[in-house]
## 1
Amino acid sequence: ELKVEQNPLFLSMQEGKNYTIYCNYSTTSDRLYWYRQDPGKSLESLFVLLSNGAVKQEGRLMASLDTKARLSTLHITAAVHDLSATYFCAVVTTDSWGKLQFGAGTQVVVTP
Amino acid sequence: KAGVTQTPRYLIKTRGQQVTLSCSPISGHRSVSWYQQTPGQGLQFLFEYFSETQRNKGNFPGRFSGRQFSNSRSEMNVSTLELGDSALYLCASSQWSGGTYNEQFFGPGTRLTVL
């Protein structure tokens, strides 16, 4: 069974500093997603990573994928308050395209 | 393009009742997946429908069922509600193209409270 682990589960960030969230998964996967969720809201798609070595950046967020290590990272540069949210990684496999297996989520709180 | 819509947004039921939730995917998306989100279990996959056929199913009891219509709209039904069914139910749609699914886009969710 595909398992997805995120760490840390909680991250208290200081504004202006850099941080990384890690996402490990247990079996071969074909793509990895990062989502953001604000309290009481739905999931907003951030990145889709399709292949080994993929790197995508949007603003202060950068995501990368190492399929050999079964590891994705979400790097936050110079954290700002607006980035406070819960971040989820999710993985799919070719035999279950429509089934996202989510990590537990990382709750991020950015303080001055 | 309109996003994924879910109705109702909030629902309060009592134990033993049944409930039906509705999801309208993005136009052109033929795949609809359902997820349950709770503080204790996180985000869990319920089932996925593609062209009116259930393609994948999660580990939920038979009280949870779903269907998809020819216009790709989907419904999920929970019978004999239990307190533990209180959750945010999210539906997501995606497009099949080039032999693979594209990313899943999520609706706003239905918040179900069982009393």
Note: The CA atoms of residues 70 and 101 of chain B lie 19 Å apart.
## 2
Amino acid sequence: EVQLVESGGGLVQPGGSLRLSCAASGFTFSDPWMHWVRQAPGKGLVWVSRINGDGSVTHYADSVKGRFTISRDNAKNTLYLQMNSLKGEDTAVYYCAGRGSGKIDSWGQGTLVTVSS
Amino acid sequence: EIVLTQSPGTLSLSPGERATLSCRASQNINNNYLAWYQQKPGQAPRFLIYDASRRATGIPDRFSGSGSGTDFTLTISRLEPEDFAVYYCQQYSISSLSFGGGTKLEIK
């Protein structure tokens, strides 16, 4: 069974940093693309970033480019999202998701990030 | 960037009825690289349809997708009580992926 478990969310002040982690199991983690998708309270889904299997290719939404960095450690079956220069509009539930370069067949339960002073 | 516009924003129907949800893209979606997801309150999204018309594993055949180019449709042939949720379309035609704003399917 595929499992994706996010951690690292919490309350952070504007301008601060946070690193999210996603522990994966139930599939060969080093093969597929993986994504981060976020959802502000009461709002829709927004794609954030994706990374290919060996970590050599990454893409970002314009709204986070230059502030967020996606990475992965295939030896630890873990996906990361380093978030810097956080703003109030980054407040959202962040989902770890994957297993396709575009279509997303697996989702974690999400971790809440709140950016507020 | 490809902007996806979903309509209607809210659809009120009764169990047993047919639901038709629309997703329109601001530019052509190559290879029909469009997916649909279902999300219920407090839950993660669920993968329904990919490549515009292919059902994901385990998805009932009352769910079907169609369309090409810029206009796509998700159809639920006979609504079951568990189908009332929010539905999102998503394109993966270009490196910057995007989701539509969602259609809320509610019980009439």
Note: The mean pLDDT of chain B is 97.
